[in-house]
Design a protein that fits this description.
The protein is α/β, with parallel strands linked by helices and 656 residues long. The chain has four domains: 2-87, Histidine-containing Protein, Chain: A (2-Layer Sandwich), CATH 3.30.1340.10; 98-137 and 262-358, Glucose Oxidase, domain 1 (3-Layer(bba) Sandwich); 149-255, Enzyme I, Chain A, domain 2; 383-655, Phosphoenolpyruvate-binding domains (TIM Barrel). The strands form three sheets. The protein has an eight-stranded mixed β-sheet.
Length: 656
């Protein structure tokens, strides 16, 4: 069977979406292929899938042959038609994709101030100066020994054990709680490469032809890396570094060697390397690293993405010039322009020190707002909370000073597993979230998915427009077998006292009443079973025009409103927010959208309930004063925007 579609995955099947697509495909028994421009590759190979270079808005065909072919095609087509497929947390700064390069400043020419500079690629903004930490582990070379016929089976087994060992190491890294969601996605993609048939199959072929395992791994990795380098796509070119890095890890296991550790890097040091694997960097003590300089890599490499997501200045792509840094004692780097200064003189040191201090002062100027409780002029507290999608994001939100969670997206909990999460798994997640932010409120959004987000265990119908279809609260109410597990888990987590629950895509009062009846039913069941539980405040997201128009009536039914400006804007303006041709219409400042927000705020105030906002607009300093003047008392945003938002609110009060 086969079916064609237009790919809507944001930026196409790059590393993380490809990894998740492969994981989904492997969940089916059928043989599955993806076809583009007449070329077919296995949908169960992330390497082959990435090399197919599937871009957003391209047409592809999914083929499946087997007992569950229909289910496979439906799920994979749904994935390809989902713009957010494979992007875990909604935090664009953490996405391991081509768009991550967009945040990088345009590389400037070297200033003509007479100071000798090395010019590289501006990969992560910021300036730094510090002691050089040279990381130049020895290159690995195969012994080049030809195997005897009776040695081949043993060498194959040795290689397979090495691959398993590398995967186990990566699994342990993934199990650690100190990885950000973005870093986790990168490590998962590397793990997928280590097990990919394209790599392992080629290595085994070379071993069977008489190559020793180390030489075979080097040869196979080099060949696949060359394929990535040949693709007309900068982001996929950068995946060549990932293949080399994975091959190196396998070789180190085969040789019984450990990689040179980064654990001893001094505080504030500049990491200097010819190349460094993304897995190694993700595991390094990133808070101690002042900057990164590499001979290899570019703005779309995983090294750059990790550096940007952690605010570490980076200059990459120096080539052989990186060797001039091997014996450096001190290094200054400008990640905005791609400049590196070796052992800067007094004038250069003074200039960089001044710039570093200025940047630190700016950050510190915002950091003082971490513990600030912003208020309106009348003393009303404005809660500035975080939008998050996983437990891995808790630390970033806490460090930013989040006054709780204004939006916890539960769909990631469902999308990251091959099976629907159990009630116990959900209860543990919601409880961990509640305990982490107590006594601040944690608002959990019930499952918000539709046909654009394939999830194992939920079959969605074909829909011409899934964004206006069977999704959010509509789907949940039709599937009480799924919804009740989530509601029971939320009731169990509510014993911590700070859980609130909100419903997405509400357009009728009946949806709230039906949900409340289910909540009561679940509470009665838990009581009968002797399971500890507690009630929670129930609210709704205001994201449909219908919800705005019935807001006065809705406000009498719920404890709070949370305005989702992203969807509210696209629905009011009838403009798909993912369609660039109508992007100018997708503007929250349009009078129609601002009027909808004000109407909602008035309805909430009249009923005496809290009105908040969890869309992207909540973090915009230029709009925050207007929202607060409308009566909003809670704003939820990405952690990176929290301190600036608090500063904006504080300035409003000071002006009065």
């Amino acid at each position: 069977m086969e079916r064609s579609t237009i790919v809507r995955v944001h930026e196409g099947l790059h590393a993380r979406p490809a990894t998740r697509f492969v994981k989904l495909a492997k969940g089916f028994e059928s043989d599955v292929e993806l076809v583009k421009d007449g070329k077919a590759v296995s949908a169960k190979s992330s390497v082959k899938l990435m090399l197919l270079a599937v871009k957003e808005n391209q047409e592809v065909t999914v083929r499946a042959n087997g007992a569950d072919a229909i289910e496979a095609i439906e799920a994979l087509i749904g994935y390809l038609e989902n713009p957010r497929a494979g992007l875990d947390d909604g935090n664009e700064a953490d996405e391991a994709g081509p768009e991550a390069a967009a945040a990088v400043p345009v590389q400037g020419a070297a200033p003509t101030d007479g100071t000798p500079k090395l010019q590289g690629v501006a990969a992560s903004e910021g300036v730094a100066i510090g002691p050089a930490f040279a990381h130049f582990p020895p290159e690995i070379a195969g012994p080049g020994r030809r195997l005897q016929a009776d040695e081949i089976e043993g060498e194959l087994e040795r290689f397979r054990r090495a691959v398993a060992a590398v995967q186990a190491r990566m699994d342990r890294t993934l199990a650690e709680n100190n990885l950000s969601a973005g870093d986790r996605g990168i490590v998962a993609a590397l793990r997928d490469i280590a097990a990919d048939d394209s790599l392992t199959g080629e290595v085994e072929k070379l071993i069977k032809e008489g190559d020793d395992a180390v030489s075979a791994v080097i040869g196979a990795a080099s060949a696949i890396a060359a394929d990535f380098s040949a693709v007309d796509d900068h982001y996929l070119n950068a995946r060549a570094d990932d293949v080399h890095a994975v091959g190196r890890q396998i070789c180190l296991v085969l040789l019984g060697q450990d990689e040179v550790s980064l654990e001893t890097i001094p505080q504030g040091a500049i990491l200097i390397a010819d190349d460094i694997g993304a897995w190694d960097l993700a595991r390094a003590p990133l808070k101690r690293i002042g900057g990164v300089v590499c001979g290899h890599g570019g703005a779309t490499s995983h090294i750059a993405i990790i550096a940007r997501s952690h605010g570490i200045p980076a200059v990459l792509g120096l080539g052989d010039k990186v060797n001039e840094l091997r014996t450096a004692k001190e290094v200054a780097i400008d990640g905005n322009a791609g400049h590196v200064i070796v052992d800067p003189d007094e004038a250069a040191r003074a200039d960089f020190t001044r710039r570093v201090e200025a940047a630190a002062q700016e950050r510190a100027g915002l950091k003082v707002f971490k513990s600030v409780t912003p208020t309106r002029a009348d003393g009303t507290v404005i809660e500035v909370a975080a939008n998050i999608g996983s437990l891995e994001e808790i630390e970033a939100a806490q460090e930013a000073g989040a006054m709780g969670v204004g939006l916890f997206r539960t769909e990631l909990l469902f999308m990251r597993h091959m099976h629907l999460p159990s009630e116990d798994m959900q209860a543990e997640t919601y409880s961990a979230l509640a305990k982490a932010f107590a006594p601040h409120p944690v608002i959990v959004r019930t499952l918000d998915i539709g046909g654009d987000k394939p999830i194992a265990g939920i079959e969605f119908p074909d829909e011409e427009n899934p964004f206006l279809g069977w999704r959010g609260i509509r789907m949940c109410l039709d599937r009480p077998d799924i919804f009740k597990k989530q509601l029971r888990a939320l009731l169990r987590a509510a014993v911590h006292g700070n859980i609130k629950v909100m419903l997405p895509m509400v357009s009728e009062i009946a949806e709230v009443r039906r949900t409340r009846a289910l909540v009561d039913e679940c509470a009665a069941e838990l009581k009968a079973e002797g399971v500890p539980h507690a009630g929670f405040d129930l609210g709704v997201m205001i994201e449909t025009p219908a919800a705005v128009l019935i807001a006065p009536a809705l406000a009498k039914e719920v404890a709070f409103f949370s305005i989702g400006t992203n969807d509210l804007t696209q629905y009011i303006m009838a403009a798909d927010r993912l369609n660039p041709t109508v992007a100018k219409l997708n503007d929250v400042t349009n009078p129609a959208v601002m009027s909808a927000i004000e109407l909602t705020a008035r309805a909430g105030a009249a009923a005496g309930i809290m009105v908040g906002m969890c869309g992207e607009a909540a973090g915009r300093p230029d709009l925050i004063p207007a929202f607060i003047n409308m009566g909003l008392t809670e704003l939820s945003m990405s952690p990176a925007s929290i301190q600036r938002a608090k500063k904006t609110i504080a300035a409003m009060t000071a002006d009065r």
